[in-house]
Amino acid sequence: MRSPGPAAAEPVRAGAGAAGWAVAPVIEWLLREGRLQTDAAALVGQLAERLVAAGAPLWRLRLGFFTIHPQLAARAHIWTRGGSVRVESIPYGIERTDAWIGSPVQKMVESRSPVRVRLDRLAATDHPVLHELAAAGGRDYLALPLAFSDGSLHVFAAATDAEAGFSEHDLRSFGELSHALAPVIEVLATRRVAETLLDTYVGRQAGRRILEGRIHRGDAEEIDAAIWYADLRGFTALSETLPSARLLELLNAYFELVADAVMPRGGEVLRFMGDAMLIVFPSERRGDLGPACRAALQAALDAFERAEAINRARRLEGCPEIRFGIGLNAGTVVWGNVGARTRLDFTVIGQAVNRAARLESLTKDLGVPLLMTATFAAALGRPTRSLGLHPLRGLDEPLEVFALAP
Q1: Which domains does the chain have, with CATH numbers?
Q2: 43: left (phi over 0), alpha (psi -120 to 50) or beta
Q3: pLDDT in tens, 295-309
């Protein structure tokens, strides 16, 4: 901790102060209308404009909250007068970087108290972010903790370019606002966490349905969809020979390359089953499988292309290559909740799913990495070739299977 100096962080102190702008109408708007906003960036923009309209000497406003996300530690929403709201995604490990160490936000979080810094009185040793704000015209800076019910602290920071900086009235008013803002942001942040967790573990479209309240066993609907079933080659042998860390690395690389090919085309990764993946491409219109099937096929071709590029590097590194087969089918499936009363799975079931899985197994026997049913091939609108009738486990009659034409 550096010794106090001209730019030392100082706590906000309540004082008599002169009369100034009124924060009460802004708080009333926040608790009545602002709390209904489900988008953090929109809320920050509206809040900032309300503050400026009320007469607050606001030049820059930053609202940041930590989150639960597979890639991000936090999100920050930054409004600057005359501009739009900018969203910053903050990766894990920020606390070990120069951007965090010694920053006013770090001091606020660790002290659990407001921090104020006069930007027109900085010392050379002050944190670079403060010098950046000063260079852009800032005169005074205030960071206030937003305390959530779980004890975590989040960030509400304001800066002004007014020559006199913040008055005691400004400091007191922002402090009052922070107490009203914290529960509003907690609700918004909690919803964002719920959406992120559902997107991460069940997929975006399934997650939206769950948030809409479809959480009862038997809540389901029939949809038309293209079904993709993929399986990694030689996984059993690899699991017996590879160290666990390398096996997980291989699995994650395989899952990632497939997901990166599937998701931009509207595919939903519903389940990881060991080394297998169940993916659904819902049709936008009942009875029209063409767009979903074409998206699924293009995603499959992209996945194979990505795998080949990755395998070139893996061969040079002496790592096992990623090889997999894909079975593609299309039809009507049931999409919804199945399971026990208190433990459910949101998935797809039906004949189309079973046949896609059986078809993927056949790719190993035929030595063809991608196979389709007649239904899928007919919906594509592009040349395919029949590989004849083949018996599949669980089916009474042999099934005609197709591959892409050369």
Answers
A1: 24-200 (3.30.450.40), 215-404 (3.30.70.1230)
A2: alpha
A3: 999 999 999 999 999
